[in-house]
């Protein structure tokens, strides 16, 4: 493929409801998009997934935009790429900044799928025609409000419920959900809110048959997670701690997790996601695809990724209508969840869900072109 030019776009998005992660609550979450143009007239879109500030990972929206503008996209325009490895090679020298790299890598795959005239999942070797999803519920001011949200999610058909926990909002919601909804498939995500000093809490949580406990300890730790996993039977799932294939290899080797949440932006690409997923599954580690409140564009990429058989647990993907007042996919073709909590993958070439390009043009808050 010959990339004749590239564009970097920042799009103003507003969430329908504010969401709390790691004790930070936010409602605005702009999308950072890369748009690649080939010499044959194909246009590919990719999305960063970065968050407004560095509370989940060291990266955030402004850093992703800046690294793309200053270091990645100037090396992409006017070049030919025979493979994703050639593309990755142009930015392999940059340490980290995975939320920047994913935006251009996603756009590359979007172009490939259109060139080959096949759906994205087929480009990656995905074979599952539909993917099971669950949803992710924010910390709420009271347990009662959370119970109401769980009830709505179950009524919508979700069969796996994930709640966020933090010190002071952990055991109580789990007990309340088990009392009210019984044996549902339930998991908790701590977003690095605890330390090994909290072992008594984890022993308590261990009694509630949780599907998993996601990222209980520090974002950059695997040693303490291995210690915790030795002391509880509930599977630990790592999210923040796994940034690469080597991170996964080491975490698995020392027994730091039984499950990995793969977020393509966090590991810097879909090729990297596939490598990690297939390696970890070969060692019997559970694999699922998490989310970063991507717009429908990012959610569409993630849904296609889950077509790979290595993804054996429900994804955090609640479609393209749950998070934003107005999404980036066409209003009349959203990503929908059926009553059994599945997304059926489109068989059309590319993303398969049309992008609302008119809305994007009207909501650009920053833009850069390569070449200028
Ligand atoms: O830890 O999984 C997380 C969103 C932002 C930061 C961290 C996390 C999340 C989610 C989002 O849970 C779930 C989704 O996008 O559907
Ligand atoms: Mg998480």
General description of the model:
This protein has 372 residues and is of the alpha/beta class. It has two domains: 2-117 and 356-370, Enolase-like, domain 1 (2-Layer Sandwich), CATH 3.30.390.10; 123-344, Alpha-Beta Barrel (TIM Barrel), CATH 3.20.20. It is 34% helix and 22% strand. The chain has helices at residues 61-72, 84-91, 98-116, 120-123, 143-155, 171-181, 199-205, 223-231, 245-253, 264-267, 270-282, 296-305, 357-362; strands at 2-11, 14-21, 24-28, 31-38, 43-47, 79-80, 130-137, 160-164, 185-189, 213-214, 236-238, 259-262, 286-289, 315-316, 342-344, 364-370. Strands 7, 8, 9, 10, 11, 12, 13, 14 and 15 form a nine-stranded mixed sheet that branches. Strands 1, 4, 5, 6 and 16 form a five-stranded antiparallel sheet that branches. Strands 2-3 form a two-stranded antiparallel sheet. Strand 4 (31-38) and strand 5 form a beta hairpin. The longest helix is centred in the first third of the chain and has 19 residues, at 98-116. The structure holds 2-succinylbenzoate and magnesium ion (MG). The site of 2-succinylbenzoate has 14 residues, from loops.
